[in-house]
Amino acid sequence: MTEDVALDPGCTFLLLNRRSGLAKDSRWAEYFSQQLSSLNLFRHIPFDKLNEIGVIPAHGLKPGWNHHQQFGVPKSAPHKAKVTVAYHGQHPTFPTLVDTIKIILKQDQLEVELIKYDLTIEEPDSVDIWVKPMGIATDRDDALAGWLLNYSDIEQMSQPDTFNQMVTLIDEWRNGNIETFPATQIGTTLANTYQIIPMFHCWLGVSKDQCGSLQNAKCNALGWFDFSQIWVKPEIGGLNG
Fold this sequence. Notes:
By secondary structure, the chain is an alpha+beta fold. It has helices at 26-35, 38-44, 47-53, 94-106, 143-151, 154-157, 160-174, 183-192, 208-211, and strands spanning 6-7, 12-16, 55-57, 82-88, 111-117, 129-133, 196-204, 214-215, 231-232.
């Protein structure tokens, strides 16, 4: 990678349905959190595929955060069950992730149903695990407020007390009772309550080795290139002075 390639300010993560899915039982939530940790998935993805999708393991919501505990005595599934995993079908890395999740869970004799969707699914409450991108476009910590409250889907999948605890923190900051936005407290809460499992940080942009003659090939946190800023480097080696 080069200095022109930066990490996504957020991460890809697994959202556990702690309200109506298997993870409403803390034994399942803890099992998923350990078995589907980023390091465990990383070990199961072929190296050439890792190089192709361009990701590194995430240990928290943002690069440099280390809130998700991925070690300890391996957990067993509480009992035989079908695990339903939903993912956006158009995302370039999600098919690889869900295939790996399926391999890991089936090693524990669990049945896995994969649901691919474009916009929504008919019965979201029946999903146990959602594969999600954060989709924030700035390094500002307070960007987590808009993500959490508006489009993370965490409120619909969390236990009310957990979500209300984080909303209270944000309200305290908005009212001026907390000087610094409580980003790390929110990240810690989401990980420690097994609400989310951070997966991977993605590289934004294309390295010089990959882009050839394309210059300034950078993309935002949603994976979109600004084509107005990309230009083609001319071949000048064969020109006569």
